[in-house]
Specification:
CATH class: Alpha Beta
Number of strands: 3
Strand content: 5-15%
Bound molecules: NADP nicotinamide-adenine-dinucleotide phosphate
Helix content: 25-40%
CATH topology: TIM Barrel
Strand order of the largest sheet: 1-2-3
Structural class: alpha/beta
Radius of gyration: 15 Å
CATH architecture: Alpha-Beta Barrel
Number of domains: 1
Shape: globular
Length: 134
């Protein structure tokens, strides 16, 4: 079952509670964190895998972060670009199985693939990433 806006998370949660389903695909990113309230805890509780779509909020996060230099703590999670920090925020949530970023640019694809290696943020760094994305 898939959706892409927080306005339908309650519907997704209702189906999850009443049906035996293997996975959901929903929007989750440092800029769209609503799934943390109900969907992600429910998925963990019921053993439902979660694919995160819109991990860059459809590209909005790059518009917000464009003028901000990468903070020094990004090195603690082996990131040298904002894209990797944002993807690591998503996949470090315990309920998330994977993120599916979209790109039409091969350099961006290579950049995004680097988020699949190295250290992940702990709760302290996750809070800092979320604060940067506001
Ligand atoms: N099931 C559903 O209902 C549903 C709904 C929405 C989306 N999805 C899926 O979710 C996936 C992602 O969705 P999305 O495209 O809406 O959002 P997204 O992945 O959050 O954002 C894509 C945007 O980020 C840019 N981008 C990607 N990597 C970048 C990088 N390393 N540096 C700078 N910019 C970068 C892309 O531009 P460039 O092309 O220039 O890189 C594009 O504008 C897609 O596979 C989509 O099919 C599913």
């Amino acid at each position: 079952m898939t959706h892409y806006t927080a306005s339908r998370h309650d519907d997704v949660a209702r189906v999850m509670a009443s049906q035996q389903i293997d996975f959901i695909q929903i929007n989750y990113s440092a800029g769209e964190r609503e799934a943390e309230q109900r969907l992600l805890p429910t998925a963990l509780e019921r053993g439902v895998a979660v694919i995160a779509n819109r991990p860059f909020a459809g590209g909005d996060l790059f518009r917000r972060l464009r003028s901000r230099p990468l903070p020094p703590w990004a090195a603690e999670i082996d990131c040298d670009r904002w894209a990797q920090v944002l993807l690591k925020f998503v996949v470090s949530h315990p309920a998330i199985a994977c993120a599916i970023p979209a790109t039409s640019n091969v350099a961006h694809l290579r950049d995004n693939m680097k988020a699949g290696i190295g250290r992940l943020p702990d709760e302290r760094l996750r809070k800092r990433i979320a604060a940067e994305a506001v």
